Input
Amino acid sequence: MTEQREQNAIGERYLLNFNTDDIPYEFYDVVIIGSGIAGVYTALSIPKTANVLIITKETIEINNSVLAQGGIAVSLDQHDSPELHFKDTIYAGAGLCNDTSVKVLVSEAAENIATLCLYGVNFDRDETRRLSLTREGAHSVNRIIHTGDATGKEVCDTLVSAVSDLENVTIKECTYAIDIITENNVAKGVLTTDAGAKQPKAYYAPVVVCASGGYGRLYTKTTNPEVATGDGAALAFRAGAELMDLEFVQFHPTVLFHPQNNSFLISEAVRGEGALLRNINGERFMPTYHDMAELAPRDIVSRAIFQEMQRTKAQHVYLDITHKDRDFLKRRFPTIFNKCLSYGIDMSK
Output
């Protein structure tokens, strides 16, 4: 099969000149671009009779999923339900949510969490061995399951370990997806390169899954890792995929403000455990912006912080959880506590 260069309205179809007859290739049943939770979980969900390839442009443990701290929302408590979870999510989305997608999210959450537990994900549990629940922004009840403040890392590590044991899954690290190869507007595979390659390589498959993550690194200030540069969205668009809602890039309300680190995420779960936002004068301000105060939807909290910084002519605000016991903070937020301590900041004082 020879793929000719095609033109579209915005320029060249492919980033490179290539002829598929002249480059090395391999065949698979499914090629997955991306090694975050979405990509790895997809690989685990595919029948074991299929030959699956995961490609990731860095080592497999470097992705946005690993950095997720707070937890996963799921209606498990006796006072909760998928219907209430749906209502809270629609409210948080300010009327912009796709109702069908939200219904799938809330109705299928519990069964997928059960699957994660079967794979061995070690979520925090209470004294009765039930999954421990906390609260985050815009949720009306506690429904966030977690593993300390490193939930994403625990889920990723567990799933990567599981997928690495599968004989039908091949993982290629430090392999950069350049373009989706198409023929007659149908995806046929992925064109790739790697650090030592003298020419590109094609991985052919009748199914291509793009689970490459977002593009937070297009912005100067972000908590996203360096790999979140939007390559997947761009190559999908060049291949003819329809992109939507590109303007909905979420900026987390709270991040460490320090000369040596201004991109370390401070989980929303800290506010879920009672932390208060105070301005440069030490005044709590969120109750004046929203009835849910510190647990208002993220966009509202972010705007309130920005407005308060403008009002007080400050570069930052404070997140105050000094009313909590030091041992509790070390146990509940070990990653955040130790990171702050490494910069001389004691969360308990």
